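Marked as duplicate of an earlier ticket. Keeping the data here for the record.
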Amino acid sequence: MANNADEKRIRILETAKRRFAHYGMAKTTMAEIAKDLSFSKALLYYYFPDKNSLYAAVLEHVIEDCYLLVIESIEKTSNVLDGINTILDINMDFKKKYFYIMEYTILMRKELPLELDKLIIDSFERQCKTIELVFQRGVDTKELKPIVAEETARIFIFSTLGMRMSVLKDFKNDFIPDKCEFDEILEMQKKLALIFVEGLKA
């Protein structure tokens, strides 16, 4: 029974993820998700009492998928710059693919429930940790000079966050890039990574 319940929950998350990614949070209804699943609304509400709880679960699902892919991928990289660029590529791919999911958390950031706010903070901490892992590996292999990997990772992450400010055409729009601006942001982040890593080499 538990396995069946888990399977239904995963089906709901995958279906809702597609809806939210295509139409956004505001333009998606629980009735539409139930219809996509051929579920009754009552069954959908049994698993998720409201759209906010479903959205939070979907966002957590997306963040977890991104994190696991990053961890798996950086293990296959051979140097620090390759590792950092891999993280940047994967994170940007997810931001583009799930633009309408991420957008809601930015637009509603002042009104987010505590569990969503905590999820965003945890996601940021995980992102810092993946960068830290790459820097620490560089120190361990003597590719980089001795550094405090955790502190250096945070400095790098905060620096990359500023990149979107330089390409935004509309500063009134809560600093949300247009989809077409993502590639420009990624290019700048990679240039920063090159400068950053070269400055840290042993």
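See parent ticket for discussion. Confidence is low (pLDDT under 50) at residues 170-174.
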